[in-house]
Specification:
Distance between the termini: 34 Å
Number of strands: 0
Order of helices and strands: HHH
Length: about 120
């Protein structure tokens, strides 16, 4: 079964997106030292403690604290930039697909005229 480049790309993109979404952020096999969590401490408290330790070590001023804004913690400027880039990419892929289809139509017409002897 012959698949077009666009179809193959869509399948590849979809599988890659699923793999990225399903990939764990940390794995016990990753080689990193495991974090020991005591029973009463939750993961959020542990994460906050780790972040605070990092900020203390790097001497980061409290004025540079993260503010959760926008979607998924991204700033609105970053979010809209990413949306623009994704839309531009999709537009480009549609353009490539339409150009390829039109090229095939023109070549088919030329071959038909050549075979008919016109």
């Amino acid at each position: 079964m012959k698949q077009s480049i666009f179809t193959r790309f869509c399948i590849f993109f979809f599988i890659t997106a699923l793999c990225c979404l399903a990939a764990p952020t940390a794995s016990p096999l990753s080689g990193a030292d495991p974090v020991r969590v005591s029973a009463p401490e939750t993961m959020d408290e542990n994460e906050n403690r780790d972040i605070q330790w990092f900020k203390d070590q790097m001497k980061i001023s409290p004025q540079y604290l993260e503010e959760t804004e926008g979607i998924m913690g991204m700033s609105w400027a970053h979010f809209f930039t990413m949306v623009f880039l994704v839309l531009f990419f999709i537009w480009g892929m549609i353009t490539v697909f339409l150009r390829q289809r039109r090229t095939k139509e023109i070549l088919a017409t030329l071959l038909k005229e050549t075979n008919d002897g016109d």
